[in-house]
Design goal:
By secondary structure, the protein is an alpha/beta fold. The protein has a domain of about 150 residues: TIM Barrel, CATH 3.20.20.30.
């Protein structure tokens, strides 16, 4: 199974150590949020040079704070530092109104149009192509990056609604989701994304599905903790819509929890629904938190080798 983990660590040394251990354990990927270390790209580049095969991806970098040409150059720098094709994947998304308007003081009036234009500029730049683009949000004349050479950087879009699923299918390698269960992937994400890719003559897209995971016998306790720990994802409209597509009341219901057999079945269900990769975000439950964490990691170690 293609299973990755959340990229974590309070400092660069811990991030590198985690990447080395995850690679040794057979995990296919690590996924880093934009909040890690303020910006995860430098730590990812260092971790990439300290490992040899594991994929390192962003999940996700926000589009609004960085012009697409700057974003492409940043990605090219990381890919060049790692030095091998397919090791670095750039996941981007428009974030959410409270962050963009409240935090950055920018307009969030047209996130769909913004992201569609952003991707049409960014995707060819990541393929090492020059770009001439004139839209309503951006006007760009950009040369191809000399850093990329033969190192193609795959692009994923955090596509949760129909428009961005179409954009992801038409222009990118696929999507990366968070808080989407098997029902949402099967009925909402996969068919729209695949149709858009097929209509554009593109290869079968990747669907990287991110969810909290905990092996714990008391399911009610685990879901209660997940509901508290991940409460904000039930409030933000984009995630709320994806939870609704899955028929879920909130983040606690989206989490993958239960004993080893139950968690295995839930992860298998995600692949059956259309996931190409599962991004597991382990969280710990109960008084014996080290025991819960160890059980979760042990099971994921087994599953990644299947």
């Amino acid at each position: 199974m293609r299973i990755g983990l959340s990229g974590l660590g309070p400092n660069v040394d811990r991030i590198v150590a985690q990447a080395q251990q995850a690679e040794a354990d057979g995990f296919t990927s690590l996924w880093y949020t934009s909040a890690l270390q303020g910006d995860p790209l430098v730590a990812m580049a260092i971790a990439g040079r300290a490992t040899s095969s594991i994929e390192l991806g962003t999940a996700v970098l926000q589009s609004y704070p960085a012009h697409p040409v700057l974003q492409a150059n940043r990605a090219a720098s990381v890919a060049a530092a790692i030095g091998a094709p397919g090791r670095f994947t750039l996941g981007i998304g428009p974030a959410h109104a409270p962050m963009v308007e409240g935090g950055l003081g920018l307009s969030y009036a047209t996130p769909g149009r913004h992201t569609e234009e952003y991707v049409q500029i960014l995707a060819p730049l990541l393929r090492g192509e020059p770009v001439t683009f004139a839209g309503e949000e951006y006007r760009v004349e950009a040369a191809a990056s000399a850093l990329l050479g033969e190192i193609n950087v795959p692009l994923l879009v955090a596509a949760l609604a129909p428009r961005l699923l179409r954009v992801a299918g038409q222009h990118t390698a696929g999507t990366i989701t968070w808080m989407g269960n098997a029902v949402a992937i099967r009925d909402h994400v996969a068919p729209r994304l695949r149709k858009a890719a097929a209509n554009a003559g593109r290869p079968e897209p990747r669907i990287v599905v991110g969810l909290p995971v905990a092996v714990h016998d008391d399911v009610a306790e685990a879901r209660t903790l997940a509901a508290t720990q991940f409460v904000n994802y039930g409030i933000l409209p984009n995630y709320r819509r994806l939870l609704d597509h899955g028929g879920l009341a909130g983040p606690g219901d989206a989490a993958i929890v239960g004993n080893e057999a139950s968690v295995t079945a839930q992860i298998e269900e995600l692949f059956e629904a259309g996931a190409t990769d599962v991004w597991a975000a382990p969280f710990t439950v109960g008084a014996d938190r080290s025991g819960s964490r160890a059980r979760t990691r042990a099971l994921l170690n087994e599953l990644v080798r299947l």
